[in-house]
Amino acid sequence: MSSLLSIGKSGLLAAQVGLSTTGNNITNANTPGYNRQVAIQGDTGTQYQGFGYVGSGTEIQAVRRYYDNFLATSLRNAEANQASLDAYSSQISQIDNLLADPTAGLSPALQDFFNGVQDATASPASAAARQSLLSNAESLASRFQGMAARLNEIATGVNNQISSNVGEINAYAKQIADINLQIAGLTTSIAEPNDLLDKRDQMLTELNKLVKITVTPGDNNMLNVQFGTGQPLVVANKAFQLGTSTSPTDVSRVTLGYVTDAGAFTELPDKVFTGGQLGGLMEFRDGAMDRAQNSLGQVAAGLVTAFNAQHVLGQDENGDLGTNFFNPIEAYVGTNTRNSPASTAEVTATVVDAGGLTASDYSVDFDGTNFNVTRKSDGKVTQINPFPQTTPQVIDGVAYSISGTPAQNDNFLVRPTYTAAQSLTVAIKDRDKIALAAPIATAAPTTNAGNGKISAGTVDNNYLLPGNQVTTPSTLTFDQATGTFSGFPAGQDVTVTANGTSTVYPAGTPVPYTDGANISFGGVNFTISGTPADQDKFTVGPNTSGVGDSRNGALLAALQTKNILDNGKATFQTTYAQMVNYVGTKAREAQISGTAADASVKQASNAQQSVSGVNLDEEAANLLRYQQAYQASGKVMQVASQLFDTLLNIGG
């Protein structure tokens, strides 16, 4: 009777464990990270009774956790990609909204500014038109500054989120290391702490949403966690701590790296942080964010440089040569804080050529002999030659000046357009200083016998060189016998350009006449056309009545539609439009990729849940099955008790 009682008892205990396991599954059906568990039941063996073997009951061999590492890893990878795209999309949508706004964007302000230039050009003597131009210029500067400030706010927000993510990553890494130790202490050869395993897996899931990780098995049921290209985050029960620091070349930029217990910081490259929220933020910052700031600055720096270059070639209402309309743009130069203390090298960079500007950053490095300027967008290297310098060297529209005594491995970061938009300001405050007139005037006396005509004339940058400004009129006289002009300013060579071919005539040499050819000396340019008669005269002199003249104003207005940027391939508006289009395209790509990522997560989650998830219908059936088994085992014990009572009664 005792064997029957023991068998019933073992069945009762097995059913009880089954009920507990099923009940635990049901109550944790909505617990994040929970993997369903099943009580594995087996017989306890048989005993030989002379006539054969008789079973001795049942036992619970294990409570197994249904977990598929391949499916769990696939789900984590999908979630890391989803988190990365979500973080990227939420950030780039802010820039997209800022740049594409038809009222708050840059395009309306640019249009208003050049409308002001055109109005002033149409009425150069109008004080109201000139004042309106200055007001439009201030509004344009304010728009550039406002957009730059908003981009800086977004960049600051990204820095804060990066720092916050690093703190969360460190917290999860420590918790995983701690739970690794607990799991190792509780794991036996036949049993594992299922609840702790679920808790650890959930921590890995949350960590993976912050930065994409790789999980590998370690000793004694512990896990090792790496990120990037194999950088360790958790090894057994040791957690590596990440930290943030200020970039050695840009105080507004956060860098990431390892932090030791002693507080030492070892920087890691941005590219190792991929996937998850942190990966999305880094991709946004190093891609769309930098390009938006640099491209906006490229338009600002290009406008300032081109407009100033033309404005200084004009004449203001006081009869003086024009000055800078906008304050010049100085490129951002960051001196690496890790440069040798013995180094006294300094790098200055000034934007001088709008057409040569790019939206790239540059690294300036000293190799012990030479300074090399590396364009980061494509790796092109240009050597500063000679060094030490005698004059600044222009590279991609920026004049580099290096002074002091460098040390080997000195490094500087140059961002030509990075701060251009926020630093754009109007230099001229007096409307009389607007140089709408040309500084020279040409004339053909009515007494000329021929039908020769002379153009109004323009000046170029050479006119600004010392000694080239026209202070007295020069009278050019045509000699029909020799077909030449004489009377050009003494000491200045004359260049004649006809059909694309230029010929230089030394100072004092008669200049052959070619109908319609461009004639230039000392930065003064004009043409003479038609058929001049013998001794016909033409004068080139200073503009003494330029109040109503707007020749330079017309050239300033023409800058709006002139292909100036990108080596003469794009206007200010088209360059800005390209930036808006780039950001808009990236934002749309992120949205589309995000939708695909959501579908991938759903698919991976369904696959994982099909193995590890709790099916309430199935558990309800199990609950009924174990209940019946429990009742049946109880009945076995009841029968055994009754039989035992019968034997006792027989004996009595």
Provide keyphrases for this structure:
652 residues; alpha+beta; 6-stranded antiparallel β-sheet; 5-stranded antiparallel β-sheet; 11 helices; 30 strands; Flagellar hook-associated protein 1; bacterial flagellum
Helix/strand/pairing category: alpha+beta
- How large is the count of helical segments? 11
> Can you tell me the residue ranges where pLDDT is under 50 for at least 5 consecutive residues?
none
What global shape is seen?
A: elongated
Give the terminus-to-terminus CA distance: 18 Å
**Helicity, in percent?**
40-55%
Average pLDDT confidence is 92
Beta content: 15-25%
Number of strands: 30
Main sheet summary: 6 strands, antiparallel
Radius of gyration: 41 Å
Protein name: Flagellar hook-associated protein 1
Organism: Duganella rivi
Main location: other
GO molecular function, one term: structural molecule activity
